[in-house]
TrEMBL record:
Localization per Swiss-Prot or TrEMBL: Cytoplasm
Family listed: Belongs to the radical SAM superfamily. RlmN family.
Alphabetized UniProt keyword annotations: 4Fe-4S, Cytoplasm, Disulfide bond, Iron, Iron-sulfur, Metal-binding, Methyltransferase, rRNA processing, S-adenosyl-L-methionine, Transferase, tRNA processing
Stated name of the protein: Probable dual-specificity RNA methyltransferase RlmN
InterPro entries reported in the protein's UniProt record: Aldolase_TIM, Methyltransferase_A, RlmN_N, RNA_MTrfase_RlmN, rRNA_lsu_MTrfase_RlmN/Cfr, rSAM, rSAM_sf
One Pfam family this sequence matches: RlmN_N
Gene behind the chain: rlmN
NCBIfam families: rRNA_mod_RlmN
Cofactor: [4Fe-4S] cluster
Cofactor note: Binds 1 [4Fe-4S] cluster. The cluster is coordinated with 3 cysteines and an exchangeable S-adenosyl-L-methionine.
Record organism: Paenibacillus chartarius
SUPFAM superfamilies found in the cross-reference section: Radical SAM enzymes
Role of this protein: Specifically methylates position 2 of adenine 2503 in 23S rRNA and position 2 of adenine 37 in tRNAs.
Lineage top rank: taxon: Bacteria
Amino acid sequence: MEEQNQATNTPPKSKQLPPDLKPFVYDYTLEDWQDWIAAAGEAKFRAGQIFEWLHVKRVSSFEEMTNLPKSLRDKLEAGFQFVTLTEIAKYQSTDGTVKFLFELADKNAIETVIMKHSYGNSVCVTTQVGCRIGCTFCASTLGGLKRDLRPGEIIAQVIKAQKMLDDSGERVSSIVIMGIGEPFENYDATMKFLRVMTHPKGLNIGQRHITVSTSGIVPNIYKFADENMQVNLAISIHAPNDALRSKLMPVNRRFPFADLIAACKYYIEKTGRRITFEYALMGGVNDQAEHAEELAQVLSGMPLSHVNLIPVNFVAERNFVRSTKNDIFNFQRILQNHKVNATIRREQGSDIAAACGQLRAKHLELKK
């Protein structure tokens, strides 16, 4: 089943940055730096120094790497560049949520969000410029997919957030890969991001404090299960059956519901880890008692599962409305009666359009 899934339905490559563009300094893992240093004929320990300057001291130029010889700094200057994240807009919510709209070197725009919790600061990162998945209730997919982000462009979002938190002596304690784009369609960059973020000589974010969310790219769910990582997995499910899910999420036509559930069961069996199922509740669409009953039946064979119920965000270009409080609590109650663990997501940043894609969509409309 796994081999069959991985051999079919491979998504086409999205547009990339020009291949002759110099690598970003954050594109490299420590092991990549060790290889580069060896090829450059420099002392081995220099790789660790470079990695520390970038991720622990968080410098913005090679000149600041003062314990490196000038000849090595010149080589770095000639071979690499820092990621350009120009702040277009920054909004702060009454609940402490901070949302950034950044412009990249090629003038595309992405979003990054810092969320304040009782247990620390969480950063939500973007993995693609736009999205081609086409979920009918989401702002991220408006305008389609422009290109994948390079690993360094994803990493730079966390570095930028950490630099802001440095001013108050705080740190990034967790990461959610739930911003614009589908991380599992930019799989290699996402995996390199994870390896850099969790490295003990870098920001050293614990794997269990990172969650990656996918709309259900089945081959890469199998692949992720085999990575032997402790990173949390969330699946955007949003419907309890094929017919409704295909209407809400066109990706379901590529990777049918039954195949997705089979991949999830493989993940649980292989890793022994829980999966979170993200379920956006839309008034009169997928929030009725029969939907909850059907979802409970689907998840009955997966004891290591949790449903995160999300009252849908209003998007002007979409026609969906938020479920009533009664329907939300009734949906949760039905799942719990069937021994399915279910919680209702706490809203954050609603006063600053913090739901992914909303700020970028507004920016694109203004540009037009």
